[in-house]
Amino acid sequence: MSFLNHQNNQEHTLPDVFTEVKHSVTARQVAEMYGIEVNSHGMACCPFHEDTHPSMKLDERYYCFGCQASGDAIDFVSNLFQIGKREAALKIAEDFHIPFDPKGRPGRGQPVTPEQQKEWEMRQLQKDFREWRGKALSDLNGDYRTLTERAEQNAPTDRDAPFPRAFVQAYNDRTLVEFYIGVLETAPRETQINLYLHDRAAIAALDDLVNGRGKPRASVREKLEEKKSLLRAQREKSTAPQKQRVAI
After folding, report:
1. Secondary structure, 3-state, the chain
2. Both 192 and 228 in a single domain?
3. How far apart are CA 180 and CA 51, in angstroms?
């Protein structure tokens, strides 16, 4: 999605503050910005009631299992600072350097500068990536479980006979699935975004193959293996400077 308007050679303009903030930041991001400590599971002590054990879940939105407080990033800041929602949206926009139409009318604000265009598109890319990453990890973890069961069901029973073809295929596919999971969970964010930009179709094709929605064509398999090698080389390259500094 792009906010640039190319129709009738109209001037590029920014959306209103509510639209921009809702598309740019998550509840977890604003919570961490304003001093809320969020653990690795996305849980935090709720700031809206006396909470000594993390009971609030934060991601795109937030929800407290203790007091049932919930909402988006704007709701969170509005409740945290006891201010109106427009004031909360303006505060987030200022603190996160989010450009917007000060008149609140999409298409009638200030012209977008190249820097603002690049910043907005980068935030939109990150938002789209976050949504894709969550679904991709869910699908890949499901594929991993499916392939593990398939490998166990087709495990060799005769030590003198060749490995069953279904066993070998399930094991190889699981190795590839495990590799993609590792990239999405541990690789640098830049590598993960490159995976989203260039390989989400290949990952979807792999998911189709595992679940019987696609034909196991050699060309698809070869392409997946090629991407696997390229990603491994990229990951090794990204960690090379760190290894070099440690050696020094």
Report:
1. CCCCCCHHHCCCECCEHHHHHHHHCCHHHHHHHCCCCCCCCCEECCCCCCCCCCCEEECCCEEECCCCCEECHHHHHHHHHCCCHHHHHHHHHHHCCCCCECCCCCCCCCECCHHHHHHHHHHHHHHHHHHHHHHHHHHHHHHHHHHHHHHHHCCCCCCCCCCCHHHHHHHHHHHHHHHHHHHHHHCCHHHHHHHHHHHHHHHHHHHHHHCCCCCCCHHHHHHHHHHHHHHHHHHHHHHHHHHHHHHC
2. yes
3. 38
Q: Residue 226 sits in which domain range?
A: 118-247
pLDDT in tens, the chain (248 residues): 333 333 333 333 445 778 888 888 899 999 999 999 999 889 999 999 999 899 999 999 999 999 999 999 999 999 999 999 888 988 998 888 877 665 544 334 455 667 767 777 777 788 788 889 989 999 999 999 999 999 999 988 888 888 888 898 898 899 999 999 999 988 888 898 889 998 888 899 889 989 887 655 445 556 666 666 766 676 676 665 554 544 44
Of 47, 82, 112, the residue that ends a domain is 112
Is residue 1 within 8 A of residue 89, CB to CB? The reply is: no
